[in-house]
Amino acid sequence: MKRMACSLSFVTLALTAANASANQITEDMITDAQLRWAQGIVSIGEAKLSDQDYAAYAEKMISELYDYEKYGVLFKPTKAKSDQFRETFEEAHSYFVTGVVNEDNGFAINPWTNVRFDNHDILVMDDIALAMGNYFFTTINNEEVKVEYTFGYRLDESGDVKIVLHHSSLPFNG
Question: So which residues are the signal peptide here (predicted)?
Fold first, then answer.
């Protein structure tokens, strides 16, 4: 009987460990989400240049990558002045392609030819991760624009990484 109890305990521990790792976000998941975000920004600009429905591209990117549906998102865009924060899906969409916020000029329709992330660090805490660093946006004239960021991510119930925090600013110039 002791042997059976020991075996059952081992199986329980193994299943618990497997379940914990299945619900844990990883650095690789974060870098993949960053790559998808960068590709989304570039795709929106490409769609605008080729007279496609760039607003639909933005809607798809926000739906897939941001968590406005379940928990909401703390979003402070780079080029936000009077209306500093984008609390709703519609406001985020406006920032990327224009819309409900009057000051928005459509950051993603600039267009950008490349976006690359340079993570200073990524902190992983079970199903939450934070990333901070600089990202670089390449213009159609091949100039790079450096922007500072902090992103917060959560692993949702389906195993998808969702953005719950997005703060972005231009480097201090003074």
Answer: 1-22
Neighbours of 146 (CB within 10 A): 11
CB within 8 Å of 85: residues ≥ 6 apart: 74, 75, 76, 91
In this prediction the pTM is 0.86
Q: Are 133 and 121 in contact (CB under 8 A)?
A: yes
As a dihedral over the C-alpha atoms of residue 10, residue 11, residue 13, residue 15, rounded to 10 degrees, the angle is 160
Q: List Cβ neighbours of 63 (8 Å cut-off, separation of 6 or more).
A: 69, 89
Q: Tens digit of pLDDT for each residue in 88-137?
A: 999 999 999 999 999 999 999 999 999 999 999 999 999 999 999 999 99
Q: Which amino acid is at 140?
A: I
Cα 124 off chain centre by: 15
| Rounded CA separation 170/156 (Å) | 30
Query: Domain limits of the chain?
Result: 26-169
- Rounded mean pLDDT of 160-166? 98
Indicate the CATH number of 26-169 among 3.10.450.50, 3.40.50.12370, 3.20.20.20, 3.40.250.10: 3.10.450.50
